């Protein structure tokens, strides 16, 4: 009797686990959706005797549910939910000590760039940025102090795709920890733990939550000892995700796969259309055969390539800005991964925190536009984009 | 405590901004409507998603501002029971999806039908129901509307001659579900509307099981469309809500009465509903796909005696359903071969993915045996009348993987 549907049954498919793992029935009421536990503290069985939960920073049932679901989807043993994606990356860097060296990808989120170059450097941590698609460059950058290699499964905004398995193998041979920001990839398409990566990070604000209505960050790991270390950092520093946001992310995970596949399909059609449109200099999309790592992307599920599209207009910085400001459905905003389509100019927005020299070095040109393709219908999005490009580049 | 008592409240959906927003997406694809329609394009502080306005009351800058409001020159929120910003945007989104002029939200599906009937009927009036319907709707009409002198007549579902015969000069409304619960009978809406027009009687369709993704009764000329938004519209088994959609003029008195009776939603609830609607189109694709696949699987299963699913050619109303619906949803009813209630309950208990619970339309699959869940306190005679045999199972499919649902049912049906 009873319904064992909350159990992490590996025989169940991704979509089924997204709905049922971590969504155990509340034994006290039978509620089909677990209650939201707002309690900051929990009554204990006795003095010096501890229940499963004691204080909400150390653990909260709503957070635990989300962590269970996520660990199952990533193929990990456990996960941790943080108050933002940056808080999650920061927790990883807190495993390091003064004198340690970090290698990160040159196609890197601006916030991670800022953390590594303007916060971690004050703790005596050294950073080298390399092209993660070039394994020999990664090898050459390693020195005896290298403790962490930080990778994005799909780079931002150039959408580069590193060989996670090869980097993980090499790092293991040198005893170096690997972490992957899988925000663009999502566990629907990319599961880095399966390639031997140690830590998978998400800005849950993006696809996991999926509705532009909560901030969150997550870390998933395949090794229980590493989980313990990260949990220690989280509990000691306190950047935990609040229960209401945990509930919203959990709710988002239930439609994650449907959203990512649908958004990917629309992105593919938009990328193909953009490629043939005048005034578009180049389109960067993993699903296009001319993407430098297209073959690697084909190994995901063979049919879907994510919902981020970057393209370059044959236009000035001002014209490009005007194109971004002229869309109607695509809203001008940073962030990504939600049901609403967003548009932005990396040079002035998501990557504005790069030094100007690094922006030039890493190809963040003035004509670059980044799209986060949402759930709207293709025809509506295509028309919107075409109008905006035309408006900005003529007259 | 509210201090202003007026007869006229502004209809929040009348705002000019609303019109702009609606017309902007009138020709958009359904997915675009789900994400954008009904919402103010620019929200306060530039928020991309709707702020949850928890205020119970709304301030006026000065007495002149109040005067403009009272004179109907400024449609704006006043007091929570008469409408809130969150309610306004969800109502507009639902109206857009439904292809209706207006929609009114209630705190549950039952409060929506009660709200409509209480607004439209007076002592001495009559309504005619098709008999396959949600048992609480029937109970409300039989036990409570009757206390106010309203007569309810029930006729066999789909029997338009019987419905015609039941209409008289006091008849005010024709009521049906389509498809019905739990027999999934699709009602011929053209015939239904034609009958209403012939006798100048208004029509109400509860389209909860169909959803506006698969069926838009307003396009057939139905006057009022009822939804339990708790089901597919909210879609996550985590909120209650109800909705009536139709023409603005006809809904004016309904909205006014709701303002008096107060069966409204909190803005927290409305936000969850709006969030659910963003993935509504996507979820319905999967519900439809799961429904069709599981219905076909059950139809060929040796332990299954009968399957009710409007997408199957074997369903008596299949041709009607196929003509007016673009998909058939996630609800399937079936009967187990040579099983008494106990043997049937063992199959329900053996289900591992679907959980035993009433309701439907959420991402999680649910399973129930109508005999135990809703009709246990009826006499065998009554159950026969309602068409609820002991060996009937109602399956409300969620959006899990189709293969997992079929594998789970297959093992459950292997239970002795």
Write down the Rg of chain A.
21 Å
What's the helical proportion of residues of chain A?
25-40%
Number of helices of chain B: 17
Percent helix range of chain B: 40-55%
Largest sheet of chain B: 7 strands, mixed
Q: Span from first to last CA of chain A?
A: 71 Å
Strand content of chain A: 5-15%
pLDDT < 50 runs, ≥5 residues of chain A: 1-7
Largest sheet of chain A: 7 strands, mixed
Distance between the termini of chain B: 61 Å
> Helix/strand-derived class of chain B?
alpha/beta
What is the N-to-C order of secondary-structure elements of chain A (H for helix, E for strand)?
HHEHEHEHEHEHEEHHHEHEHEEHEH
- Strand order within the widest beta sheet of chain A: 1-7-6-5-4-2-3
The rounded Rg of chain B comes to 22 Å
List the helices and strands and how they pair.
The complex is a heterodimer of chains A (395) and B (416).
Chain A: H1 14-20, H2 61-74, E1 78-82, H3 85-93, E2 101-105, H4 110-118, E3 126-130, H5 135-141, E4 146-152, H6 164-173, E5 177-181, H7 186-189, E6 199-203, E7 217-221, H8 224-237, H9 243-253, H10 256-275, E8 280-284, H11 294-298, E9 308-313, H12 317-326, E10 331-332, E11 342-344, H13 356-361, E12 368-372, H14 378-393
Helix pairs in contact in A: 1-2, 2-9, 3-4, 12-14
Chain B: H1 16-24, H2 30-36, H3 63-70, H4 85-98, E1 102-106, H5 109-120, E2 126-130, H6 135-144, E3 151-155, H7 160-166, E4 171-177, H8 189-199, E5 202-206, H9 211-214, E6 224-228, E7 242-246, H10 248-261, H11 267-278, H12 280-299, E8 304-308, H13 318-324, E9 331-336, H14 341-350, E10 355-356, E11 366-368, H15 370-373, H16 380-386, E12 392-396, H17 402-413
Parallel strand pairs in B: 2-3, 2-4, 4-5, 5-6, 10-11
Antiparallel strand pairs in B: 1-7, 6-7, 8-9, 9-12, 11-12
Helix pairs in contact in B: 4-11, 5-10
Give a written overview of the molecule:
The complex is a heterodimer of chains A (395) and B (416). Chain A has 395 residues and is α/β, with parallel strands linked by helices. Chain A contains 14 helices and 12 strands. In chain A, the strands form 2 sheets. Chain A has a 7-stranded mixed beta sheet, sandwiched between helices. The termini of chain A are far apart. With 416 residues, chain B is of the alpha/beta class. Chain B has 17 helices and 12 strands. Chain B has helices at residues 16-24, 30-36, 63-70, 85-98, 109-120, 135-144, 160-166, 189-199, 211-214, 248-261, 267-278, 280-299, 318-324, 341-350, 370-373, 380-386, 402-413; strands spanning 102-106, 126-130, 151-155, 171-177, 202-206, 224-228, 242-246, 304-308, 331-336, 355-356, 366-368, 392-396. In chain B, the strands form 2 sheets. Chain B has a 7-stranded mixed beta sheet, sandwiched between helices. In chain B, α5 crosses α10. The termini of chain B are far apart. Chains A and B meet through α1, α10 and α14 of A and α2, α12 and β10 of B.
